[in-house]
Write a structure and sequence with these properties.
Elements (H helix, E strand, L loop, with lengths): L6 H20 L9 H20 L6 H12 L29 H16 L4 E3 L5 E6 L8 H7 L7 E6 L4 E4 L1
Antiparallel strand pairs: 1-2, 2-3, 3-4
Helix pairs in contact: 1-2, 2-4
Length: 173
């Protein structure tokens, strides 16, 4: 009988795969696709893994602590959206205000539950007849591991979300 791997081993595999692929693409000047969908999907898998660990420790402040640390790294993830966008029965994603109405929840739903199944950009139809999609990019230039990831936010436009009506598109970095 095969048993589930311990969380530490799973994290090591996920983070190692991400870092090795990230650096390989970054150092390969002939790479054309740059791993856009692959990295976005893998980042959502790691986010889900961490969120499930927090959920499993519901008596602690794990999700609150995780939310605070992620907010320090990328506060735009916690941009409030005009309405509720996602709900998950088995875990909570990081949040700062109300569960399910922040950009991170929409990103997770569109990428993890959309891209993973269709391998294409998923567009959400909004209640006011507008649409929302997530624009992501792979590695733009060489970087090595976690040190480079910490330095990247100010220099690399990694992520935008777009809300588009029939006449006008608004891109928000």
């Amino acid at each position: 009988m095969s048993l589930n791997l311990p969380p530490e081993t799973l994290y090591s595999f996920m983070a190692g795969d991400f870092e090795d692929a990230w650096n390989s693409v970054a150092w390969n000047p002939s790479a054309k696709s740059r791993g856009n969908f692959m990295f976005a999907r893998q980042a959502m898998c790691i986010l889900e893994f961490a969120s499930r660990l927090c959920w499993g420790d519901a008596a602690s402040s794990a999700i609150s602590d995780f939310s605070s640390e992620l907010h320090k790294i990328e506060p735009k993830c916690f941009t409030r959206l005009p309405g509720f966008c996602a709900d998950f029965d088995e875990f909570d994603l990081p949040y700062r205000s109300t569960k399910g109405d922040e950009l991170l929840w929409a990103i997770f739903d569109l990428i993890r539950n959309g891209q993973a199944h269709q391998y294409q950009q998923i567009v959400a139809d909004l209640s006011d007849q507008a649409v929302c999609d997530i624009l992501d990019w792979g590695r733009a230039r060489p970087a090595i591991g976690h040190r480079a990831l910490k330095a990247a936010p100010a220099r690399i436009p990694r992520l935008q979300h777009r809300i588009q009506s029939s006449t006008l598109a608004h891109c928000k970095p």
